[in-house]
Fold this protein.
Amino acid sequence: MTLHISSKVLDAMKEAAASAAPLECCGILLGRGDTIIGAVPTANVHPLPAAHFEIDPAALISAYRDERGGGPAIAGFYHSHPNGVAVPSATDAAMAAHDGRIWAIIGAGNIRFWRDESTGFNELSYAAITG
């Protein structure tokens, strides 16, 4: 499966990672199926944000409320690895819910997408679209 994601969303995630460095940024991916239509930045409330991330629970609850009310679906999540590469870490694997959601990881100026499956993370290809 190839994800489709707007170049504006990709740029916004890269900017969030650059602005948060040397801490990890994080946020929520919005979309359905193979299309990501938005990335909502959230506060990283983890007590050690230089090496871990935890999406602000209030932002997550709000996104689920919006989804239930007919708003965009939560397709997954994103975070950065300020001092690493854009691959899931051992910590990411330990935190994963194995629920099929998409994880975007930003590291070393690159974004890579992963599906959190019962067998672990599987990398997804993506295509940037205009808009």
About this structure: The radius of gyration is 14 Å. The chain is about 25% helix and 40% strand. The helical segments are 7-20, 57-68, 90-95. The longest strand covers residues 120-129.
